[in-house]
Amino acid sequence: MNDDIQEGLILTEERWQAILRNDAAFDHRFYYAVRTTGIFCRPSCKSKPPKKENVRIFANAAQAMREEFRPCKRCKPNGERLPDEEWADQIARYIDKHYAETITLEMLADLCHGSPYHLQRTFKRVKGISPVEYLQKKRMAEAKKSLLETDKALSAIASSVGFSSASYFTTLFKRMTGRTPARYRQWNADRTNLEGREHEQTP
Ligand SMILES: [Zn+2]
After folding, report:
1. Which end of the chain has fewer CB within 10 Å, C or N?
2. How far does residue 46's CA lie from ligand 1's centre (Å)?
3. Which part of the chain is the HTH araC/xylS-type domain (predicted)?
């Protein structure tokens, strides 16, 4: 059938390298099957790299199954259940994008179809910190950027990174960086001035 001939079925060098690197960035973009084993995988699968000449590329899992390849038990390319790493990555990506909004553990758990308890444990095991800690780190990084690159008021910065209370923002900022936001901004301005002056003095 001509419909089956579409871009996405070719083993390009880019895809081959993704398979060799177990590159998760290519997951869901294509699947690869191995003729000799009859099994198909996600690009990120940690299984032994196949011989290049035995590889076939599919745009989706259904296509591979139509051709009678079986899903790999390790990377579960057809599974509703994602590998933990991928699951945690999805949550992290969501936080990266929505940090300025109200985010709770319960909301995240709802979004990714898991219990808050499971989310908390899995995320922490994969990322080393809890989802809420991850969110706070992201917010602090964005706040630091605003403190240095803009002259917005602290309350405006606090709300722009998702804190409803400026005083809570200040408390948390101090706990995480050792300085209040105002001192952080001042300290950086002083440092930049000093560097500028030293620079002028050099012949
Ligand atoms: Zn696999």
Report:
1. C
2. 7
3. 89-187
